Amino acid sequence: MNLLSHLVSSICFIAILMTPSVSMASSQQCSINLNYGVIINPTHIRIVDRGQTQVQINNDDQLFIQGREQQLNEEQRLLFKQFSTGIREQFPEIVSIAIEGVDIGLKAVNEVIGGLTGENSASQQNVQAKFEELKWRIRTRFNQSANNYYIAPQDLNDFEELFAGEFEQEIEEVIQESIGTILKAVGQSLIKDDNRYEGGNGEERIATYDDRIAGMSKGLELAVSDRAKALEHKAKEYCEQLAELDSIESQLHQTIPALQSFNLIETN
After folding, report:
1. Contact by Cβ (8 Å): 47, 264
2. How many whole angstroms separate alpha carbon 263 and alpha carbon 268?
3. DSSP structure class, residue 160
4. Could you say which DSSP state residue 71 is in?
5. Interval 152-177: pLDDT, tens
6. Sign of the C-alpha dihedral, residues 178, 179, 184, 187?
7. Are 262 and 70 in contact (CB under 8 A)?
8. Could you give phi then psi for residue 201, rounded to 5 degrees?
9. Beta-bridge mates of residue 39
10. Residue partners of 134: CB distance under 8 A and separation at least 6
11. Average pLDDT, whole number, for the chain?
């Protein structure tokens, strides 16, 4: 019964870790809205509403609003360059945080499966391959090619929104398969022990395996907790940087009235 208890506890813990709400450090609130989609490539930034480009920035210093070029004085140009550079540097970090959240889950389940079936076992490689594929799909969703990004309008109050729709289902499928792999590995290990020590004390073997699961669970909890805290800190810094960028945008609205109709970053 102790074995079952620790096994269920470990599996439930891993399942929770691997859900986006925890992996994305959702305890860190980021009260910022991105009101428009943003397309970034090496020479252009486009602010998009329902598929239509409303604001375009060329080479970080040339501004078009609804297709009309805006003449900027030197002060406006310097401020505007700060804003466009900030978009280039900070918006792609959303992708980095999303990928890092998946990595936390990947490393957690890899450690458990590796501990039960052996490092580089077929079970471990199978689950790792599925996670690598998922990470690739997430990356290509936002990063179409080198230095080309698309960030959809969204509420950053909860980073798990990055995984809405198709990725949510894929993550659930990987989690379910991973849990199945863990259960299978436990069953196979117990069968091997029974065959190896036939006639021995079954309760002692189960108690030994029980301790093994419990120790693994505690070690995993500490390791993942440290990773989650680091990611939470990164998410907090990211939100602060976006808030600073929102302040720059507010200054632009004051000096370039035509921009006021297109408030990209909104801090609640």
Report:
1. yes
2. 13
3. G
4. P
5. 888 777 555 555 455 667 766 776 77
6. positive
7. no
8. -80, 105
9. 46, 150
10. 102, 167, 170, 171, 174
11. 76
